[in-house]
Write a structure and sequence with these properties.
It is built from 13 helices and no strands. The chain is an all-alpha fold and 364 residues long. The protein has one domain (10-346). 39% of the residues are buried.
Length: 364
């Protein structure tokens, strides 16, 4: 056990990648606490890039083993991972707004819950409800990406053109991003939550996974240098002023942060132990990063957005960590245990039946 929060699938977790999660959510917490203007974008893009890398790994493993993606299992796993903690947060949020109505959002509860549970917070053109849940645009962007990416990846493998399909997808997303900026300019901030503004980060993470063997050869012996440069670049961008109004934040800074995140991933992915006990708090934070993200923005708004002083900023972080720890033990870990039980039962059933021939697949 590397930290306080032992996961049901602890043997499958990589502590180095949990450190990246911890750093990403730490940057988001700092931004919402009123410091480091660029940290929010950096933290969110780091999550997106890591997600693209990890999920693509699961998808290509499935394609390599069976020649197809088990969509039912894929989306069921994501549901067990994401929905319980989300519903828990939404239930508490709705109860607080219904009873105390601290932000005057009582009339918006129904619309807000609908938007959150349908993952449409990032879709423009209709009333999303409470601004207190507006941070859920990131979840919406991620889930929309994973409605499309498994299909694109499957087609790429089937036609032996995985790299081409990935490149075309990246060009299409960046093109849509630039087009959206042109349409709203000079009100560039309006594209901040659009799905096309940040999906490139997930594609860059996915491309890194698809080209992992080649990238490993290229940076062999230089991983620490690459990771050090990447970390320095991410920190420099984090201390920059807020960039929502700058067009380059979307088609330039976003991809650069994703590439920097990949630089960290390729060094930290092989860590089996922590090199220093001082990294344990960041690892622990990474383990509860999802719940911390869910809870932080509502807590910030209840206390005061932006925080008026350092005490309020520290209070937002402290209360976020408490809520995330409760969510981990009460909701997320039991849900993961249930998912593992279902997986074991399915594996037992499959072991008792004759195995079909494995379909050939080509990753190019």
């Amino acid at each position: 056990m590397f930290g306080l929060f032992r996961a049901p699938n602890q043997a499958d977790r990589k502590p180095g990648l949990d450190l990246i999660r911890g750093l990403a959510i730490f940057l988001v917490l700092l931004r919402h606490a009123g410091v480091l203007g660029g940290a929010g974008i950096v933290g969110v893009v780091m999550f997106f890039a890591l997600s693209g890398y990890l999920i693509t790994g699961l998808l290509i493993r499935s394609l390599g083993e069976t020649g197809r993606i088990d969509y039912r299992r894929f989306y069921l796993h994501r549901a067990f991972r994401l929905i319980p903690a989300l519903v828990f947060m939404l239930a508490i949020w709705a109860a607080i707004e219904a009873v105390w109505n601290p932000l005057g959002d009582r009339p918006k509860i129904g619309r807000s819950l609908f938007t959150a549970l349908t993952y449409t917070e990032n879709i423009p053109g209709f009333d999303h409800g409470s601004i207190n849940l507006s941070h859920l645009w990131t979840l919406a962007t991620e889930e929309q990406f994973y409605l499309l990416w498994p299909l694109v990846l499957t087609l790429g493998v089937r036609f032996g053109k995985t790299r081409l399909f990935t490149l075309l997808s990246l060009v299409a997303i960046l093109g849509a991003c630039v087009a959206s900026i042109i349409l709203v300019y000079p009100l560039t901030y309006k594209v901040y939550t659009l799905p096309t503004s940040w999906m490139a980060a997930m594609l860059i993470g996915a491309a890194a996974k698809l080209g992992e063997a080649r990238l490993d050869r290229i940076i062999k012996g230089r991983r620490r240098v690459v990771a050090g440069i990447s970390l320095a670049a991410l920190m420099i961008i984090s201390v920059a002023p807020e960039m929502k109004d700058w067009p380059g934040a979307y088609f330039l800074i976003g991809p650069l942060v994703a590439i920097g995140s990949v630089g960290l991933i390729f060094e930290l992915k092989s860590w089996q132990t922590l090199p220093s006990k001082w990294l344990k708090p960041m690892l622990n934070l990474g383990m509860i990063s999802y719940a911390a993200y869910l809870w932080n923005y509502p807590i910030v708004n209840w206390i005061g957005n932006p925080p008026r002083n350092m005490a309020e900023g520290l209070a937002t972080i402290s209360l976020t960590l408490i809520a995330a720890i409760v969510s981990w033990y009460l909701i997320e870990r039991p849900a993961a245990n249930l998912r593992n039980i279902i997986d074991r039962r399915k594996a037992d059933r499959l072991a008792a039946t004759p195995k079909p021939k494995r379909a050939a697949s080509t990753m190019t």
